[in-house]
Known about the structure:
The complex is a heterodimer. Chain A is mostly helical. Chain A has helices at about 1-5, 25-40, 55-75, 85-110, 115-150, 155-170, 175-185, 195-200, 210-220, 230-290. Chain A contains ten helices and no strands. Chain B has a five-stranded mixed sheet, with no helix packed on it. Chain B has helices at about 120-135, 140-160, 175-185, 185-190, 225-230, 260-265, 280-285, 290, 345-350, 360-365, 390, 420-430, 460-475, 525, 545, 565, 585-590, and strands at about 5-10, 20-25, 25-30, 40, 50-55, 60-65, 80, 85-90, 95-100, 110-115, 315, 320-325, 485, 495-500, 550, 560, 595.
Amino acid sequence: MASTVASEPVTLHQSVLTWRNGRYGKTAVLLSLAAILLYAIDNPEGGPSGGTFLGYSYGSFGFLLICWLGWFGIRRRRYSNKGLLLQDWLSAHVYFGLTLIVFATLHMAFRFDYNIHLLAYVLMMLVIFSGIFGVYAFLRYPALMTRNRGGDSLTVMAEHLVALDLKCQELTLGLDDETFSLVAAATEDFGGPITWRETLFGWRTGPKSSKTGVAIDRLLASVVGQGALLPSDVKPLIDALGARWALTQKIRRDRRFQALMLLWRAIHVPLTIALIVALVVHIFVVFYYW
Amino acid sequence: MITRIRFKSSRNASVDPAEDVRFDVDTLTVGRASGSDLKLRRVGMRYHHAKLRVAPEGVIVEAEIGAALGPAAKPISIVTLQNPGDEVRVGPYLLVLDNPVPGTDDDWVLLVTYDQESPFDQGKRVGEIVARFSVGLPNIRLWAFSLSVVVFLLCFLIPLVMLPTTQTEPWMTRHGHAAADQAAKTVSARVAGNWSVGSFSNGHATFSANCAACHEGDFIRVRESACLECHQGQGQHVDPRPSALHPQGMPAADVRGLNCADCHREHRGPTLIALDDNLNCINCHADLHQKAPDTKFQDVTDFGRNHPRFQPGLVQEAKGRVMARFVTGDPKAIDNSNVTFDHAKHLKKWFKDPKQPWDGAAKAAAAGSDCAACHVPAANGQYFKEVIFEDACVSCHKLQFEPKHPEWELPHGRPDEIVSRVTGYYARAAMDGESFVAPSDDLFKIPDKMMPPPPDHTDPVSAQVEATMVVSIAGSACGECHKILPPTPPLAPTEWRVAPVFDPDHYLTKTRFHHEKHSTMRCQDCHAAEASDEGAMALLPDIETCRTCHSSQAAARLRVDSRCTDCHVFHNPDLPVIGKPGSIFPQAASAAPTIGSGELK
């Protein structure tokens, strides 16, 4: 079976969601529906809880599933093609991970008290939702990154930026000290500090209040009045500053996409390990005080 | 004075004489400005950076306002270059006093060399930008390890160490309560409390973090012994004592295998601890005949669909308070309570007749029911108080016995006084000269029954007393409601007796019924008093009456969802106490009627 699967032709760039025509998704849906149906028809003494036969079954299945899903972290580093393809693993990881919402909630029988057992549930939900975001990020951001970069790497974009800085300096050398220093400050303007707000939602400050904006305003003002600069001297500088700003924004967008594609794992992986610890404690505790 | 300015593009470059500039002025301006005499346009130069004043003693270099000379680390504002080799830094340039060029008339020669203090490194700058915008992932392994350690410590190790497993005093005492309250406020209790799988039931809310109150050991399920520490006196469910059916006692007297926790589940939140479903009952009672072939009880699965018809207990022997259970509607049912009452006639006829001296009308009107004129609810709300003759009956039933003397009345409830009181009345009347018609001898005969001989007519008082006992006591006065037993030899002719009365306050002996909870209904909705034929079970409702409103959890919609324990008790207060074989729960046992075998189906 495994060798047959491995020898099937692999389509490049196929989403993990539609991998093998959604085989693992359909299996996960069937599993979840079966769990919900069993829960609905089960009528245990004292009502449903984690301590009934079905409750123990859901809990055991959920724990084993979490361990198996965690094993993906190790499997993904192995490049051998023995057994299922990594795409199979990932597709199953995504869909079976989602079924945990059903299994764990039914295991708890919708009873939420503030205790370590709920902590395990909350950790699990955080892991799942960070994973959902990870899937979203990996499906959406690579295309956006490619479009944003226009074929350049970050280094190339940085080189372009330095070239623009030098050009700005060059064009400013003939201008007065105040203008010079404003433009010099503008070449140190990368759009302000990188905030969580920007990383998460893409909200960036506009050029108006930035040092670039101040420099451009100064240049625009300096073409009128006594001792005015020639527009032909100022325009190339304004163009260069504008281009520099646009490039800065591009780099920041790129950084945001990179961050979003990486940071969810900084939640997903550590919380998974913490979750497994919490689950072991949970299992110990419920039997310690049986 | 003539000053020659020569230029070098760097320290190691040579001077290009073609670029030499000569000035014949005393003062030269230096800067990026277009109007500067010496225009030096490099980053680091100010618009107006310095002035050069040429004097016979040397070249004085003076910084313009806002500018500085010298290296950035040691800025100066003025310097005089006197000897060849003297130098000063102006921005990125070095101004060095040079030797005159041979064959010229220059007074001073200044060599201007472009020599940045810290040259701009483009690659470094690119690296800085790349570093600024690179996403540095946190150390995921360290983060995972730290988080796991925190979870392990907070959720496992600290609670395990700090778990307050015992209280110094039992929590039930006042001091124990205070200690428990105090312990609950400690950090250890709060941390340890997080192990609890759910908040306590109402009854155990005071336990706080005293886990050991119920959990007697690690990895051991909560045992009955923990419950019995506090809950002593719980009657058993099955009678363990030897009986006719089980001379050795019931083998499964304690419903062995069942634990308190099977029906009483803790950590389900602030609610009742007892389960509110029927499953634990049905587990045994659905096929009880298979588990206990000689059981008297019929199988039951739920109230709505599969529940035996009611089997009220009827009095079989009033004096001994012996009852037997009969299926409702059983024509052979016998009630020997020894008191009769015609509900239909009273409700439909006597109570409606304004000529009757009935004094209960106001009471009935106030309660909204004629029944309430006689039946007063008991304090527990379940049943009714015993009907008292003096309260309910005496306004109509005067217990008179002599038409010539309506003022003569018999005492109710004191049968021993009747003969002496009747004798006294007639003796006094005889002494007063009254005479009464001598009774016929036939009056004292009952067919097929051995009776004492007729009275001696020579003693008219005795004859009259004996006649009164036959006519009034056994007939109109007492016999109206009571069963009266005739005297049989060798008893005296006056020894008519009122049979002992036992009027139980409830008949469905295996259940509890709360009349108070049904106060929105009319009495007649369940008790057919106005249509009563006064049969043994005339007023007792059948199961179908209850089913018009009550059903099981699944049997019918739009019904009150009724569980076994709504009517039945598991812990029978009449039976020996759980956990202490052979001991009897004293109060309940002495007060309870005995249920005979009767004619059980």
